């Protein structure tokens, strides 16, 4: 087969390699991932992250295991373990649910492998549609604020929110990006800034708490964010700090957009209150650690709350840019609104 490659994944039909994002931007290390415990460990320490990317990675890993002779009942147990590894990321669950019925198909593993490859292809195509739709909204030289990382490191394609920005750059619109560093693991300062450099996009890294002051000074014209799960009513979960940006944007009358594939929408989740929020290791808040050193600034005995995500109500969203179209607040409500094809407002 033709190898599949993206900013964070490489798959050749027999092996899966993952770019270790915990080492970026200073080292680019591709790690072989050939079993479920390895992928779970990579996901939990955010060596691979982004709801679309981990959904695609899980599908491709199960395809690798199937091709290597994993029995269907064993693969099913593996898949269910993967499904529970990141409770907020709905794409992961959706990918695995597509593969589970194929584990008992007469043509196993061929049909399962084909479906996994389709999941990868569909994410690439959905990123392209979101980028095209979103870039149409941007004017020349707009100052855009974003949080966390939503580019090719978070998807199999060119990204969600960052994909819109990158598309605008290729169209000659010269966007400027305020990159919120994104505490506590700095996915903005480390990853989005790195992707801006790769794409030649002018940008500045800011501490998360600087965003409202920039809005007050008229230095932000638009906010673009991604999502890990969108409820049926339009509420959505994203990296912690997103809700604060939405509140500040509403106060300063700045458009606030959510960019995500339809696979991020959870039709069984009525609203944001029903979205599970992952709680992460307290040591991420007490200091920093990793391949480049360790520094602790907080008392070890102090208790820590470290939610990885927060919930932003639909009422604070200007529009949802999905791969099926652009949706305004008045579109939200009827069942399956996200499946109706929409154009520009």
Please outline the helices and strands.
Blueprint lengths: L3 E2 L3 E3 L4 E4 L10 E3 L3 H9 L6 H17 L4 H12 L6 H10 L10 H26 L7 E5 L13 H10 L5 E5 L6 H13 L2 E5 L4 H6 L5 E4 L3 E3 L4 E4 L2 H10 L4 E4 L5 E2 L16 H4 E4 L2 E4 L12 E4 L6 E4 L2 E3 L18
Parallel strand pairs: 5-6, 5-8, 6-7, 8-11, 9-12, 11-16
Antiparallel strand pairs: 1-2, 2-3, 3-4, 9-10, 10-15, 13-14, 16-17
Radius of gyration: 19 Å
In the CATH hierarchy, the third-tier topology of the largest domain is known as Rossmann fold
| SS-based class | alpha/beta
Strand tally is 17
CA-CA gap between termini = 41 Å
Largest sheet: 7 strands, mixed
Helix content: 25-40%
Mean residue pLDDT: 93
Order of helices and strands: EEEEHHHHHEHEHEHEEEHEEHEEEEE
CATH superfamily of the largest domain: Translation initiation factor eif-2b, domain 2
- List the uncertain runs: none
User: What is the level-2 CATH architecture name of the largest domain?
Assistant: 3-Layer(aba) Sandwich
Proportion of residues in β-strands:
15-25%
CATH structural class of the largest domain: Alpha Beta
In brief, what are we looking at here?
With 345 residues, the chain is of the alpha/beta class. It is 34% helix and 18% strand. It folds into 2 domains: 4-126, translation initiation factor eif-2b, domain 1 (Four Helix Bundle (Hemerythrin (Met), subunit A)); 134-339, Translation initiation factor eif-2b, domain 2 (Rossmann fold).
């Amino acid at each position: 087969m033709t190898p599949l490659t993206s900013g964070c994944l490489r798959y050749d039909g027999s092996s899966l390699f993952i770019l270790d994002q915990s080492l970026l931007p200073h080292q680019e290390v591709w790690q072989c991932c050939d079993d479920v415990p390895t992928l779970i460990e990579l996901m939990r320490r955010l060596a691979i992250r982004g709801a679309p990317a981990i959904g695609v990675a899980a599908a491709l890993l199960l395809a690798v295991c199937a091709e290597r002779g994993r029995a269907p009942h064993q693969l099913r147990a593996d898949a269910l373990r993967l499904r529970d590894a990141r409770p907020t990321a709905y794409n992961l669950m959706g990918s695995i649910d597509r593969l589970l019925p194929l584990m008992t198909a007469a043509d196993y593993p061929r049909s399962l492998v084909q479906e996994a490859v389709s999941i990868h292809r569909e994410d690439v195509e959905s990123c392209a549609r979101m980028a095209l739709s979103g870039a149409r909204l941007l004017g020349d030289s707009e100052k855009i604020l974003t949080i966390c990382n939503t580019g090719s490191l978070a998807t199999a394609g060119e990204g969600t929110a960052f994909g819109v920005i990158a598309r605008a750059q290729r169209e000659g619109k010269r966007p400027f990006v305020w990159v919120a560093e994104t505490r506590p693991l700095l996915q903005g300062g480390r990853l989005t800034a790195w992707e801006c450099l790769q794409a030649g996009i002018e940008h500045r890294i800011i501490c998360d708490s600087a965003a409202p002051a920039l809005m007050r000074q008229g230095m932000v014209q638009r906010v673009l964010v991604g999502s890990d799960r969108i409820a049926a009513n339009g509420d959505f979960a994203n990296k912690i700090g997103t809700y604060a940006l939405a509140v500040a944007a509403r106060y300063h009358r700045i458009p606030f957009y959510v960019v995500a594939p339809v696979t991020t929408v959870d039709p069984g989740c009525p609203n944001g209150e029903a979205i599970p929020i992952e709680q992460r290791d307290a040591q991420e808040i007490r200091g920093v650690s990793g391949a480049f050193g360790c520094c602790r600034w907080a008392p070890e005995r102090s208790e820590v709350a470290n939610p990885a995500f927060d919930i932003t109500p639909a009422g604070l969203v200007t529009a949802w840019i999905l791969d099926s179209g652009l949706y305004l607040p008045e579109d939200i409500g009827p069942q399956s609104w996200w499946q109706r094809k929409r154009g520009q407002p």
